[in-house]
Write a structure and sequence with these properties.
- With 300 residues, the protein is α+β, with helices and mostly antiparallel strands.
- It has 3 domains: 10-35 and 225-299, Arc Repressor Mutant, subunit A, CATH 1.10.10; 41-121 and 214-221; 127-187, no CATH class.
- 44% of the residues lie in helices and 15% in strands.
- The chain has 14 helices and 10 strands.
- The strands form 3 sheets. A 4-stranded mixed β-sheet has the order 9-8-1-10. It has a 3-stranded antiparallel β-sheet with strand order 2-4-3. The protein has a 3-stranded antiparallel β-sheet with strand order 5-7-6.
- Helix 5 (118-125) crosses helix 11, helix 8 (159-166) crosses helix 9 (171-186) and helix 12 crosses helix 14.
């Protein structure tokens, strides 16, 4: 068990000098593993057996991946599920109920987001301007606008319907449509709005500003980008139990210049504290107060 992003180069896994202080604590990987097993529902008694339990899991953590990401330690529905493949249809059935939000968000991978946490992600990632204005300003290309126009005029639409309406049937067009759909999800233009669970299931797509409940969009309007990023980083650290500043940047696609103020605020507001993990010889951030055992988070 390592910090959240376990696949970084060696330089990223060295001690972070800016975190070293007299208040530094020492944490053991065993204690972190225990915390994660319970919180991520990978402990045998905490496994997920059905869709309603999955929804409770998503609400507990606020945002959860569908499947693990290679080289990273992050919670996912797949890892928490008690049986193989029972989780596969939830990416259609939960959005079908509007029980939560689902789209490719974190690292361009399928991500469940609870309605409580949706406003923070939307404010952190979405451009509030209408898409036609972004196109006019050169911030959307013609193909992206074409798909958004299709959904605006005919949506919601299944993936195959979007593909056929986009252009002639070809492998090239299929790949292009799939790539555009992912890009539009990461920028919060479109979202999964249910879909077909038969066979190799497919999503139904809709515009975010049409499908998402108005109260969630209004809640996002009341936030600043800085506040949204801070709250997401705070919740992330609580979910993973320990992480480096580089982990926060990697997971959420932020630069060091964007992460540094978040880390400083977490420390200033005593929502995080520096710690040292001897097993991997790494400086990390951990939540404050530390939820682990007193012996496992001792002053060094």
């Amino acid at each position: 068990m390592k910090p959240a992003h376990a696949g970084k180069e060696g330089a990223d896994r060295q001690r972070n000098p800016e975190l070293v202080s007299a208040d530094r604590r020492q944490v053991s990987l065993k204690d972190v593993e225990t915390l994660r097993a319970r919180r991520w529902r990978t402990a045998p008694a905490r496994r997920i057996s059905n869709e309603d339990e999955a929804l409770r899991f998503i609400k507990e953590l606020g945002f959860v991946l569908l499947m693990p990401i290679s080289g990273a330690d992050l919670p996912s529905v797949h890892r928490a599920a008690r049986r193989d493949w029972i989780w596969w249809d939830w990416k259609q059935t939960l959005p079908e109920r509007k029980a939560c939000y689902y789209a490719k968000v974190l690292r361009r991978r399928g991500t469940f987001i609870s309605w409580e946490w949706f406003p923070y992600f939307y404010r952190a990632h979405a451009d509030p301007r209408p898409y036609w204005r972004l196109y006019r300003d050169g911030l959307l290309d013609r193909a992206e606008k074409q798909i958004l126009d299709l959904l605006a005029d005919r949506g919601p639409m299944m993936t195959r319907e979007v593909r056929l309406a986009f252009g002639p049937r070809s492998k090239q067009n299929t790949r292009r449509v799939k790539s555009i759909l992912v890009d539009l999800q990461t920028r919060f233009f479109i979202t999964a709005a249910g879909g077909d669970t038969a066979g190799w299931s497919h999503h139904r797509w809709d515009l975010v500003d049409r499908w998402v409940p108005a109260r969630a969009l209004m809640a996002a309007d009341r936030l600043s980008v800085a506040e949204a990023r801070y709250e997401i980083a705070r919740k992330f650290l609580k979910n993973v139990a320990m992480a480096t500043p580089a982990d926060i940047g990697w997971v959420f696609g932020l630069t060091k210049a964007e992460v540094d103020p978040l880390v400083q605020r977490l420390l200033d507001e005593r929502r995080a504290q520096p710690a040292f993990v001897p097993e991997v010889d790494t400086e990390v951030l951990i939540p404050k107060p530390w939820p682990g055992s007193g012996r496992a988070a001792r002053r060094r």
